[in-house]
Please model this.
Amino acid sequence: MFKEIKAISKNYAIVRFEGMGSEDLLNYNVVFEEENKRILGEIEEVNGNDITITFLGEFVNGRFLSGIIRKPSFTAKVRMINKEELGELVGDNNVRSMILGLAPLYNDYPIKIDIDAMWSNHSAILGNTGSGKTYGVARLVQNLFLMKGRIPFNSNIFIFNNTNEYDNAFRSINSYNVNFNYKMYTTSFDYKDAELVRIPLWLLSVDDYANLLDVTSYTQLSVIERMLGFVSVFAKDDAEATRYKNHLIAKAIISVMYSNQTPARIRDQIFTVLNDCHTAELNLDVMVPGVGYEREFRKCFDLDSKGEFVERILVTGYIQQFVDNNTKWKEEYEPVFFTLDDLEIALSFTLISEGLLLNEKSYSEGMALKVKLHTINNSSLGQFFKYDNFINVNQFINNLIMVGTNKRAQIINFVLEGVDDRFAKTLVKIYSRILFRFTKGLPNRGSMPIHIMLEEAHRYVQKDTDNSILGYNIFERIAKEGRKFGLVLDLITQRPTELSETVISQCSNFLIFKINHPTDMEYIRKMVPNISNDVIEKQKSLQSGTCVAFGNMMKIPLIVKMEKPNPEPMSSNASIFDKWIIEWKN
Model:
């Protein structure tokens, strides 16, 4: 078959071939064998009877080592790879492996991957719509749960998607093993078998609120920080909280009264303060006692013929009693139980506090936060932040994975239907930050590995404004640091060009299904580490459900046929024929 070596270059050899069907040899692996070495190659090009074979690595003592130091000589025997060598490449010798798929070039020989090499590293699954990405992901996860003799009981796979396409593939996972469970959360009110997404407000950080409230400037972060400081005090609703509220209102009124504004403007601002922030002692309807009489607080701001307040001295004397500059008020945030209503009150008090009320730009930016928070609180989105009781982050994570009182779910599917992309991205960021803080805070680092699997990842992992406002992007931080703590990303998308370059550059494993768009192909060529032109060319002619797999999980890049998942996800196209066409006899 292989007659002689005609030429040897730095990375490839040209070999003379004799026989029929040389065009069917593309992508097959061959071995250059000599007395003391075996070099693995892959047939990359066929030109008549001349075959170009790229060098991939070397077999040493039965083990494959990627890359080569020495090249074969012209006297080396060239042959097809044997079963023993193929077994080494596809994981037959690894007792810690699982099935990935089949090798179509080698009669559907099973391809196995090391579990740590796959699941301990960030991965990217890329491909056009209809290329088999979702089927491939579903089968990959099903294969993990179909291992014989070993069960991934402690696995934690969090899937985020804007549809329920994975529900059909995973909801019967209990039939694989009674110890396996599946759980679904949703933002839609239409699913009877799913729990509504609910996130405790006190688990959100300043950065989470920045995303939730669409922060556009750095100065708004300080407003949020102070809001959280206030809410942790006010939510207690005790005497100290009331004294603090009165102090803030009194200080705000005094600062407005003695500002360089017209009396009419001052009155309007004071009324605004008391409409937004009031207590039993300080409100527009309270009766202010004078000498031998009392006057309604709002009436104290009537203007006389000179345009001055008729009861300026009375007002000043009344509100001064609530100013307490001797108390060191605690404004540092401490997680306590509070609601969106409490948060709105805290934000209102933040906006009247010193430094904001008379600063037009800062006050305007703060009001933008208030409008957004009020909109959330008074819409269906507010349902997602209602929690009945106080819990900490550990209890929250435990509740997410628990099924009933004594079972745990290994697959947790979040279906973000019925909300716009911006809010969905915010929810995914909030969950990701909570999971990052949780895994980072575990006493034993990496003791509870968690996978965040993002379907339609380009909706979430974007080049957005977080870096300029917050100084970082949570997905980029997880991509850089998450593996150390056992938090791993899986990105599934048909638009890799819309992904953050930092995140995709940190991926160590790739399943690339067919991609046609030249911009996406060029992006993958530039951004994916160690990708070769050969891999790019291979994926162009792939059938649906077949991918090129490479990275830490693979010894060499291989074409992998993913078996059909059972059950299948609901990701196929709608059947037009069945829905449109009816039998008609004229």
Q: What stands out?
A: The mean pLDDT is 90. The chain has three domains: 2-89, 98-103+108-200+391-567, 206-381. The longest strand covers residues 50-60.
